[in-house]
Amino acid sequence: MEKNNLLHKVLKLWFRQKSGDGLEAKLGYQFKDPELLAHALVHRSFLMGKDMPYESNNERLEFLGDSVLNMLTTEYLYKMFPDDPEGELSKRKSAIVSGHACAQSSEAWSLSEYVKVGKAEANMGGRGMETILADAYEAVLGAVYLDGGLEEVRTILNKFHFPRIPEIISAAEFVNHKSALLEYAQGVLRTVPEYILIGEEGPEHQKIFTTEVRVNGKTYAQGSGPNKKKAEQDAARQALEVLKAEAAEAEANKPAADSKPKKQNRHVGLP
To answer: Distance between CA atoms of 168 and 158, rounded to whole angstroms?
Structure first.
């Protein structure tokens, strides 16, 4: 209990020192319990090697925020597009709640400045990584929900996320992540990605397909969508992020040129 109380104090102090009222001002929401927002900004990599419980990261809040985002997005689409069939609404929602869309919306808060990641992750540009920003974005929504309720989250989404819906939907239709992954795999790894359909769920008129993508026989990501094409696009987008992160890590771990041990001169002849 004493350790948990100390952790709570550390989180509150860290939040106030690192972000002050800056993030709250950008959100337009003042937390009654700033510890919630502090938790929303802690990526699991930050806890590695520290005497802090794993539950202190933002994954639980992300889980909650994801559900809140999905529910409010569904409500918004239902009201704004009264003539759209169920399948079309599902397609729109898939793009709006995607990690790509959330990461882009997080830029309005400069969220990358506030996310707390481990040193290794930071060296690989982790604060700006789309998956980390998207997770933190949803975690912040979860924190707002716990602190102020559903209406406060709705207000934030109405201000920052929902006005971007035309842009989000348009971009989702034209960004070709499969082509980008193919170009990277061929140019850097001298291979081509392989897509495998691993599941489909739901009624015939509203199926959700799940596809995994493999590069050199290794599975890099799983994607889902209302059709096979969208599922493959989603998988390709995630896989490309992982591959680029791996490349950045390998580059960061290369020994410096001047760190190689120098060869000692061997003298032949007189001692």
So the answer is: 14
* Distance, CA of 168 to CA of 255 (rounded, Å): 42
Question: Which residue type sits at 26?
Answer: K
pLDDT in tens, 69-115: 999 999 999 999 999 898 888 888 988 998 889 999 999 999 988 98
- What's the topology of domain 1-174? Ribonuclease iii, N-terminal Endonuclease Domain; Chain A (1.10.1520)
- For 24, counting Cβ atoms within 10 Å of its Cβ (0-12 exposed, 13-18 middle, 19+ buried), the class is middle
Active site residues: 66, 138
Domain boundaries, the chain: 1-174, 176-253
Residue 157: which of 190, 95, 108, 196 has the closest Cα? 108
pTM of this prediction? Answer: 0.61
